[in-house]
Amino acid sequence: MHRRLFPRALAVLALVATAATAGAPTATAEAPTPAQTRLHATIDAILADSRLAGAQAGVVVVDTTTGQTLYDRNGDRRLIPASNTKLLTSTAAMELLGPGHRFTTDVTGDGVRRAGLLSGNLYLRGGGDPTMLAEDYDRLAAEVAAAGVRVVTGNLVADDTRYDRTRLGPDWTWDDESYYYAAQVSALTVAPDTDYDAGTVIVHAAPAGQAGTRPKITMTPANGWLRIDNRAETVATGETTISFEREHGGNTIVVTGQIAVGQAEESDWMTVWEPTGYAADIFRSALHRHGVRVLGRTVLGQATPDDAKLVARHDSMPLADLMVPFLKLSNNGHAEVLTKELGRVLSGSGTWAAGLTAIGEYVGDSGMDTGTLRQRDGSGLSRRNMIPPAQFVALLSAVRAEPWFDTWYAALPVAGNPERFVGGTLRSRMRGTAAADNVHAKTGSLTGASSLSGYATDADGHVLAFSVVLNNYLPSSVKGLEDQIAIALASYTEKGTTTARLAVPTAPDSPRVPEGLECSWVKPAVC
């Protein structure tokens, strides 16, 4: 297990110690400056909003240049962080796996090869790559053909044994199971596009040419692993009400509702039951296209023999590049794969328990007080995750000293930047304010839980680490309040002597997100 240097960890703890104080807002041990007093009053006014009546709010702000705590309300209160949990997972992965870490998917054979005939099994071994596309499996099949293999007398074996067979995270709710943000985790899987939502398929419904007939249903990628039960209808006119749902325990996707003639197609991302079989189906079809016949059946979950000979190989992008789709789009599947990969690499066990142990050791050595928090998964989908805002700020302050920090910082969503892989889940928020193209932060939402933690550069050029975690509110969204706080931080300056309270900044409205869905999960991501 990689260990941190404790003297540095203690220094980090000293830097952010004042962020762990509970109760009313405080600045530092010293008397607050007039500017800090104004900032206190501003954030207090934001948190007094009626949308937070009866709710819990934790907010901590630390100036990483001076180590001063500029604001602390309920900094030690354990709150549900939602996708801010990914801050722990991503930083641990960058340090313990390294920015250059890659996932390898390979094809091997365990029999004798002679004159185009492989007398044995062909093994497709997954290395956990969450970015494998159908075209990557096609390239692997092309390599198999180029190696001279034309007939395989044995089986196609899909080896997903790098990780355990626990597919769904602890505490995930049953009604999320068919939606792409709760995809099953396997070491061998397929993503339908370059958002890299592994273990999902995109289902499309296009209207037929005339009313009274079934819409045309297609899938990306095309496959034989899932079945469509088309109960939808094409109508002459009217509102589109197409809905997709995968039945529990299987791969039948039921399509219901209506779509009018001439309307644009409707699409949605749906999870797959047993991603290993999905990957094997895609690969077997690719082999067929390239003239490679497998005479045996497809076998799932069997380990590759040690003496199997390499036939083809695919390496993923490095982890440094994967951080972009992971953090910009808040990809839950990436977080869970990285958690299991950490367990596999560091302790030989590709399980959630082993991975979370590794994450806990890293963040603990980096300055977080792990005795004050609980992490149950890599992504934040579990409602049993509990992390105080002060501990997020401790981590955010500490990782600024890491050699990989600039890469990781750039992968965080950037407020108000319209480019999807720059602004990410913040691209529609805080536009036209001091926070735009300034605040780099991780978003998070579950029903009744919202968070924003990251960095704001203030008007004096100081980098402020902040965490806003809001729980138990009743309105559909409190994102605007998070944005107001971030804008206030980006506008903060120690210059001037007036003690008047700053005007509460106005945050542009973010697009409304359906009740119960994390904003970053909605396709396309909107907040």
TrEMBL record:
The keyword Protease applies. The keyword Signal applies. Pfam families: Peptidase_S13. Its EC number is 3.4.16.4. Gene3D superfamilies: D-Ala-D-Ala carboxypeptidase C, peptidase S13, DD-peptidase/beta-lactamase superfamily. It comes from Micromonospora fulviviridis. Residues 1-22 form the signal peptide. One of its GO terms (molecular function) is serine-type D-Ala-D-Ala carboxypeptidase activity. It is an enzyme of class 3 (hydrolase). This is D-alanyl-D-alanine carboxypeptidase/D-alanyl-D-alanine-endopeptidase. The gene is dacB. Keywords: Carboxypeptidase, Hydrolase, Protease, Signal.
